[in-house]
Amino acid sequence: MTTQNPRRLAVHPLIDEEMIRTLVHGFYARIREDEEIGPIFNGAIGDGWDAHLAKMCDFWSSVMLMTGRYKGNPMVVHSRLKTVRPEHFERWLALFRQTARTVCPAEIAELFIGRAEIIARSLKLGIFYQPGGIRA
Ligand code: HEM
Asked: Are 6 and 64 in contact (CB under 8 A)?
């Protein structure tokens, strides 16, 4: 069971929950202040930031440590955010790269960034560019 020994499947042996927490909290602190995409987040999340941050720690724990703690459907959730445009993903990634390179050792930062880029790409494709896709 992955949940019994998450470290066994971790993407890198030095990644732990504490690092994920620092990255997630640092990233969303930047996001909330960002002129371009901050308002999308603040509008959707309102006063629910504690729950959102906890969920995002679960998400990255599932991605990087294979703990299976996140059980959601990001594609559906993002497709409901009507003000998100394809170019917002570049801004999201720029802030994520900056944060990861600030708070993680260099090699590990690139592992997080690589995963984020793949997921961002698949979300963007799913929302905007599928034939008969979720959103025109
Ligand atoms: C343009 C870029 C993005 C924007 C504006 C955005 C915005 C948001 C917002 C506002 C929420 C909260 C929705 C709600 O609670 O109603 C959310 C949830 C979430 N986002 Fe993003 N996001 C973006 C990109 C990404 C990327 C690249 C990832 C992953 C690498 C990601 C992962 C998630 C996850 C896992 C959730 C939680 C979904 C759930 O409720 O289960 N997002 N996002």
From this structure: no
Residues 61-87 have pLDDT tens digits of 999 999 999 999 999 999 999 999 999
CA 15 vs CA 8, 95, 103, 125: distances in Å: 11, 20, 12, 29
**Which pair of tokens denotes residue 98?**
């900056």
Give the pLDDT confidence of 86-126 residue by residue, as tens digits.
Answer: 999 999 999 999 999 999 999 999 999 999 999 999 999 99
Pocket residues for ligand 1 (CB within 6 Å)? 37, 40-41, 44-45, 52, 55, 59, 72, 74, 77-78, 81, 84, 88-89, 92, 116, 119-120, 123
Kindly report the CATH number that applies to the domain delimited by 15-128: 1.10.490.10
pTM exceeds cut of 0.85: yes
